[in-house]
Amino acid sequence: MKSKALVCAAMVLLTMARPVSMNSQDETKQKHPHQYHHYQLVDPGTFGGPQSGLQAPPFPRNGVLNNQGTLITNADTLSIDPYCGDYPDCYAADGLQFRNGVATNVGVLPGGIASQINWISANGLMVGNGDNGLQDPLDSSFPQIHPLLWDHGTMTDLGTLPEGGYIAVGSALNSSGEVVGFGQNTVPDANAMGFPGYQSRAFYWKNGVMQDLGTLGTGTDAAAVLINEPGQVVGWSYTNSTPSAICVNHGWGFALTTSSFIWDKHRGMRDIGGLGGTCTIAQDFNNRGQIVGGSALTGDSVNHPFVWDAATGMTDLKGASDGLFGYAEAINDQGQIVGEACDAVTCYAALWRKRGGKWHTTDLGTFNGCAEARSVNASMQVVGTDWCAGVAGLPFLSQGGGPVVAISTLVSNSAGLQLNEAVQINDQGEIAVNSTDANGNNHAVLLIPCDENHAGVEGCDYSLVNAATATPGAASRSVLSTTKRPARSRSGLRYQMRGAPSPIR
After folding, report:
1. In this structure, are residues 196 and 166 in contact, taking their beta carbons and an 8 Å threshold?
2. Are 97 and 106 in contact (CB under 8 A)?
3. Which residues fall within 8 angstroms of residue 200, CB to CB, at 6 or more apart?
């Protein structure tokens, strides 16, 4: 799978490891909807090269598709990148915007080799990064890389941190054009969070001014990764110099004790706390300021899913007495949360909802025993992927809290592509998916539902699919480790950073 990241960081998402039990929680299940719509697959293509892909870590992925149906990908050109950041084929990739059936190359900086888009806002603003064609004086294996803002056809170079450095990356932005990300400074750091050898610092940019947001505690490094419409920022920061084996071993590559922060203009940076361990990683948050992710329990034996808000602080969605793994991946503006939860044998896609002042868990099911829910829209449609070692990813859809069904059985025009990772679903029910062709090349595709909100889509099959047809037969389940989750087959991370595990091909 190829996700075309111009800069990857030592922030690769946790490689599925998080056993969690649901026995102590209310697993109220709604009636399974019996019929599903077909989906029409649309491949935006590339710029001449073999592959395209949806954004990879460290950027949370719920920013690749907005509610207007605009998809952002990064696609190969036929130009060769001398830094070969897109190993192993070395084709340079450019950011691709796909809107109303038209694919547009967003361009590169003057003298630059490549660009990538990392996030699109509700009103179509985009942020990403690109090189300027010059070598990084601090590391000759890297080009100089700057965050870029695209405002409906106009590209702006946001520069680098005010204290110096030659690399910075734009992670996310909102509809007001406020941008967050992280950049390298020139202070040597053997435990660098994002860029090898030098400190990484979180930034906030607005109206031409880039601000270093600082760090938590006595930490040296930080990264800002999310911003909501009110302008609140969420990110990660080292908090001290104590090593954190769980942050390293679960795939993040963060060598030291790490927590997550929320920042706003009035109160500055605040630590959201944790569940007693040395690693708390925020993964998503909504416009109500609710944050979700995973946090290690005391002793760092396991991660649990959490939700945080200003009124109640941090809540363990599994409960402190549960010794197995879980993780929250996404939250919508209604406060519905999805992720994964495991018992001693199987990882299930999970949905958490708050009713009567308490959080309740719904087990959405699994096919191969390694299911991870990744995105939830306003209609409580959930998408994700069942990942297991040695098994191709199997994307799934759940509706209204019903059991997962295989998305591939709902697509009538697969065009020889194998769907292998569902990344995001928007409020129109459109789904961003990574897929693979017969030659193993990755293609980022858009799935459009053949429903009443998408009338007249060429090639759409408007008949309905029975649930039994859309659900694969039961698969054998192998016992999962309680400390490591099965690896996802991600690859194509651009400029792999120190401390991050190599992508699995």
Report:
1. no
2. yes
3. 9, 182, 183, 184, 185, 189, 192, 193, 194, 221, 222, 223
Residues 6+ apart with CB under 8 A from 450: 37, 38, 39, 40, 457, 460, 461, 462
In this structure, is residue 294 part of a structural domain?
yes
Structural domain count of the chain: 1
- pTM for the structure as a whole: 0.89
Domain-embedded: residue 95 = yes
Asked if the bond preceding 88 is cis, omega within 30° of 0, the reply is yes
On the question of pLDDT at 80 being above 50, the answer is: yes
Q: What are phi and psi of 373, to 5 degrees?
A: -80, 135
* Strands across the sheet containing 418-425: 39-42, 442-449, 431-436, 418-425
Residue 501 lies in a domain: no
| 495 within 8 A of 8, measured Cβ to Cβ | yes
Question: At 247, which CATH number?
Answer: 2.130.10.150
Domain residues for the domain of 139 are 35-470
**Residue 60 vs residues 11, 143, 168, 292, 341: alpha-carbon distances, Å:** 10, 24, 17, 12, 19
pLDDT in tens, 153-212: 999 999 999 989 999 999 999 999 999 999 999 999 999 998 889 999 999 999 999 999
Contact 347, 305 (CB under 8 A): no
Q: What is the distance between the alpha carbons of residues 62 and 431, in angstroms, rounded to a whole number?
A: 11
DSSP state letters, 250-300: TT----EEEEEEEEETTTEEEE---BEEEEEEEEEE-TT--EEEEEEETTS
**Which two tokens mark 481?**
């480790």
Give CA–CA dist 342/350, Å, rounded: 9
Q: How much of the chain, in percent, has pLDDT values that exceed 90?
A: 75
* Coil/strand/helix, residue 469: helix
User: Which residues are CB-contacts of 107 (< 8 A; sequence separation ≥ 6)?
Assistant: 94, 95, 115, 155
Structure confidence at residue 195 (pLDDT): 82
In a domain, 482, yes or no: no
Structure tokens at 424: 């995001």
